[in-house]
Amino acid sequence: MTPVVEVGTELPPTSVRVTRADLVRYAGASGDFNPIHWSDRVASEVGLPGVIAHGMLTMALAGRFVSGWAGDPSAVRGLSVRFTRPVVVPDDDEGALVEFSGNVTALADAPGGGRVATIAIKALFEGRTVLGKAVAEVLLP
Q: Which residues belong to any copy of the MaoC-like domain (predicted)?
């Protein structure tokens, strides 16, 4: 039975830890070896508070949050964000905690049947927004 989705429906919140090892894996997969994602020295030389997560990694985690709720990655029809603040990843075993939440802000009929839910996503690191204007469109059954 498909759960009822209406405007205001909240997605179950989730938290994701991002470690330096995650940054290494993401750099290898994406080809983004910018030293601000692995070198404390370079990060501080350019004015950052430390090594930061790749913005696209943070966006991908938001996409995973939404696709997990949808139950099918192919149901996510669109995802857009603005990068508002970096996720600083310490050189320890705990890493940085990014918290995701969201809610349905609109529903529309989809061509060919079904409905499309617009999801407003919140992504927080240390209580502060790291993805602004984060919105996903999800095809519902």
A: 14-92
Q: Name the nearest CA neighbour of 78 among 100, 112, 108, 98.
A: 108
Nearest Cα neighbor of 130 from 16, 6, 27 is 16
Q: What tokens were used for 115?
A: 């409905």
Tell whether 36 is covered by a domain. no
What is the pTM assigned to this prediction? 0.93
- CATH (domain of 103): 3.10.129.10
Residue 49 domain-assigned (yes or no): no
Separation between Cα atoms, residue 92 and residue 95, nearest integer Å: 6
Which residues does residue 56 pair with via DSSP β-bridges, in sequence order? none
pLDDT, tens digit, 9 for 90 and up, residues 47-86: 999 999 999 999 999 999 999 999 999 999 999 999 999 9
Backbone angles phi, psi at 57, to 5 degrees: -65, -45
pLDDT digits (tens, 9 = 90+) for 87-99: 999 999 999 999 9
Contact indicator for 70, 76 with CB cutoff of 8 Å = yes
Quick check: 102 and 66 in contact, CB under 8 A?
yes
For CA atoms 34, 35, 40, 43, give the dihedral sign: negative
Q: Is residue 48 part of a domain?
A: no
Question: Is residue 134 included in any domain, yes or no?
Answer: yes
